[in-house]
Amino acid sequence: MIENINDFLSIAFLLLILVYGLYITYSIFVKHHEHKMQQIESDYYQEDTDDSRTDFY
Fold first, then answer.
1. What's the domain of life for this entry (predicted)?
2. How is the chain split into domains, by residue range?
3. Are 48 and 40 within 8 A, CB to CB?
């Protein structure tokens, strides 16, 4: 499998690329999730503001 230093470096480089790709994917997921939660919170408070103008209060 690993016969010399070049094979080791190739595998190490591929693993590095894989880990970096997973990190980028995770960070994008976190940012999208954060944006979605902020949008839900904003919509919640917008609905609350809209309801305060009615006769229910």
1. Bacteria
2. 1-45
3. no
- What is the pLDDT, as a whole number, of residue 50? 61
Q: 35: which 2 tokens? A: 């944006």
**Residue 55 corresponds to which tokens in the numbers above?**
């006769």
Give per-residue pLDDT as tens, 4-33: 999 999 999 999 999 999 999 999 999 999
Confidence of residue 3 (pLDDT cuts 50, 70, 90): confident
Select the more confidently predicted residue: 30 or 55.
Answer: 30
First to last CA, the chain: 74
33-39: long-range pairs with CB below 8 Å, 24+: none
**In 3D, which of 53, 49, 22, 2 has the Cα closest to residue 10?**
2
